[in-house]
């Protein structure tokens, strides 16, 4: 279906990848992985014809239909959610114009014409609205929101509408760039199950280990400017990568030992007349050896230590008889909850149960209609929002944002920390308003690093972070000396950090005094992800 040969791409003299080959067949379920900036999205753009490679070829089967979900949404104008999902939000008109232009140009036998015509036909099918509604419901949209103007919705909800349209078209190659960023747990589970039986090939970029483990049967890693191929899911890839490194490194060490012994003999006896010919023979033997290149060790998470925050009281935050409602919608009526100093607590429960609301009440981001929020002695609260931009000054540069968070920090120290988080050289002068979702997440993490709170509240902290950065965050939080309360749909993240679980549902918050495995056992949930959304 898709064949990439000898692909090379550079920016400003710096090469992203070279001699890259990739084969996607009709039954392929593949993940493209690598650290931020490795070139994953660039490969996507080259496949889509949005960008040209420096060399190499990209061949798509003539009858293949490609569908692409980007990380960021487009302008939606005044169209409704259902208009986007059915293609009535301009997509049909754009396809019609493309078809007419190609007909006038006499290129009706091209692959581009076939692709445009197939999409046009799919969106003009009499059953398209029923299909779109089915996809929207699966992705978490209540029926009453189908006709709402999309501009009233958050970016994540708009992306779900775009994803619904993609699934309605049913492309033979589905290209997904971080699709789980925009999904809550229930819609993620539905989407995951849908993709398991999807009648087409899938090529995804994702940071979600569990999602990749459930879907993919191939992993392609961009590493040291090469595209390396592995069979199996993400866990299989990690094991194979480590085993390959160990095997190659042992072969390299053994060869270096052999060369060293030959060189030592030559050095010792080259000036001894009776052994000079043997010494020369050893040197020629070294020349004949096909040298093994020293392998690069798999990249490891960078380690950073969150400084010890000021010590707080034993009771970090207490909620007493809290009543909270959004208009007529009552979320909590008389809820009580105490978070003790040093706890590592995850909030779980079905979508819309009030997890984020509870986190905001604990952090003072929301004021209850009744009841008390009592912060403990010397409490210093840090709230890591789902909406990263809300905590950044859009008129600040990246460097200024960090220096304002910690006025005693020297500029060279700030630049060093920023470099560890992949803000290098001139990137520290970028304005925060132009940062990507992942960059905003990393910048907020840095702000917590340089000026740590003693009560850290985090709402989906792994969204937009690559896998290495997630691992780095886990390492830092494992040694964090303060109190941590968080929401996440990343099972790996939860299992590493949570020592307590609070299940939020039906206006209550039930505490399970144990880790994630304890909660799975006591809640009777047979599936880890299902447990996250249990009623």
Can you put this structure into words, describing what you see?
The chain has 535 residues and is an alpha/beta fold. It is 39% helix and 22% strand. The chain is built from 18 helices and 18 strands. Strand 6, helix 7 (185-196) and strand 7 (201-205) form a beta-alpha-beta unit. Helix 3 (91-105) packs antiparallel against helix 4, helix 5 crosses helix 6 and helix 12 packs parallel to helix 14.
Which terms would index this structure?
535 residues, alpha/beta, six-stranded mixed β-sheet, 39% helix
What class would the helix/strand composition place it in? alpha/beta
Total count of helical runs of at least 4 residues = 18
User: Strand tally, please?
Assistant: 18
| Strand line-up across the major sheet | 5-6-7-3-8-9
**Gross morphology:** globular
Low-confidence stretches: none
Question: What is the gist of this entry?
Answer:
This protein has 535 residues and is of the alpha/beta class. It contains 18 helices and 18 strands.
Question: What topology emerges from the helices and strands here?
Answer:
Elements: E1 2-11, E2 14-24, E3 29-33, H1 40-47, E4 55-60, E5 66-69, H2 81-86, H3 91-105, H4 111-123, H5 128-138, H6 155-169, E6 173-177, H7 185-196, E7 201-205, H8 209-215, E8 218-223, E9 226-231, H9 234-269, H10 276-288, E10 315-326, E11 329-340, E12 344-348, H11 355-363, E13 370-375, E14 381-384, H12 398-405, H13 411-420, H14 437-450, E15 455-459, H15 467-478, E16 483-487, H16 491-497, E17 500-505, E18 508-512, H17 516-523, H18 528-532
Parallel strand pairs: 3-7, 3-8, 5-6, 6-7, 12-16, 12-17, 14-15, 15-16
Antiparallel strand pairs: 1-2, 1-4, 8-9, 10-11, 10-13, 17-18
Helix pairs in contact: 3-4, 5-6, 9-10, 12-14
């Amino acid at each position: 279906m898709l064949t990439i040969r000898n692909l090379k791409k550079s920016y400003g003299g710096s090469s992203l990848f070279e001699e890259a080959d990739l084969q996607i067949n009709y039954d392929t379920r593949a993940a493209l992985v690598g650290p931020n900036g490795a070139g994953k999205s660039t490969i996507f753009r080259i496949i889509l014809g949005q960008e040209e490679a420096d060399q190499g070829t990209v061949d798509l089967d003539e009858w293949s239909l490609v569908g692409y979900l980007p990380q960021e949404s487009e302008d939606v104008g005044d169209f409704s959610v259902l208009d986007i999902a059915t293609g009535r939000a301009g997509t049909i008109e754009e396809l019609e114009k493309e078809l007419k232009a190609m007909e006038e140009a006499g290129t009706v036998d091209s692959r581009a014409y076939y692709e445009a015509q197939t999409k046009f036909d799919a969106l003009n099918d009499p059953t398209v609205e029923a299909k779109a509604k089915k996809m929207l419901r699966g992705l978490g949209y209540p029926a009453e929101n189908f006709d709402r103007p999309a501009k009233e919705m958050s970016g994540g909800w708009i992306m779900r509408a775009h994803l619904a349209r993609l699934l309605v078209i049913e492309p033979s190659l589905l290209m997904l760039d971080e699709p789980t960023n925009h999904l809550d747990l229930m819609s993620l589970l539905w989407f995951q199950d849908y993709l398991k039986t999807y009648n087409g090939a899938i090529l995804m970029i994702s940071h979600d280990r569990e999602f990749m483990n459930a879907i993919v049967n191939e992993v392609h890693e961009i590493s040291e400017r090469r595209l390396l191929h592995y069979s199996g899911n993400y866990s299989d890839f990690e094991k194979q990568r480590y085993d390959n490194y160990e095997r190659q490194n042992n072969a390299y060490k053994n060869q270096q030992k052999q060369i060293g012994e030959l060189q030592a003999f030559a050095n010792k006896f080259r000036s001894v007349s009776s052994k000079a010919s043997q010494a020369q023979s050893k040197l020629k033997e070294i020349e004949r050896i096909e040298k093994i290149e020293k392998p690069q060790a798999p990249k490891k998470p960078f380690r950073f230590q969150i400084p010890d925050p000021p010590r707080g009281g034993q009771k970090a935050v207490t909620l007493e008889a809290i009543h909270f409602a959004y208009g007529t919608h009552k979320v909590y009526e008389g809820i009580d909850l105490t978070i003790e100093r040093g706890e590592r607590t995850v909030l779980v429960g079905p979508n819309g149960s009030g997890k984020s609301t509870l986190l905001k009440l604990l952090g003072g981001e929301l004021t209850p209609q009744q009841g008390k929020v009592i912060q403990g002695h010397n409490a210093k609260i840090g709230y890591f929002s789902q909406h990263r931009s809300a905590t950044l000054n859009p008129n600040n540069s990246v460097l200024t944002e960090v220096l304002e968070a910690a006025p005693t920090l020297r500029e060279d120290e700030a630049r060093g920390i920023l470099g560890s988080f992949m803000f290098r050289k001139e990137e520290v002068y970028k304005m925060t308003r132009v940062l990507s979702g992942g960059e905003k997440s990393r910048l907020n993490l840095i702000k917590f690093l340089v000026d740590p709170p003693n009560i850290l509240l985090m709402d989906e902290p792994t969204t937009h972070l690559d896998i290495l950065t997630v691992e780095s965050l886990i390492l830092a939080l494992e040694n964090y000396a303060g109190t941590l309360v968080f929401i996440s749909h990343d099972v790996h993240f939860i299992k590493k950090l949570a020592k307590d679980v609070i299940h939020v549902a039906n206006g209550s918050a039930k505490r399970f005094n144990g880790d994630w495995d304890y909660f799975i056992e006591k809640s009777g949930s047979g599936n880890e992800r299902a447990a996250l959304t249990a009623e």
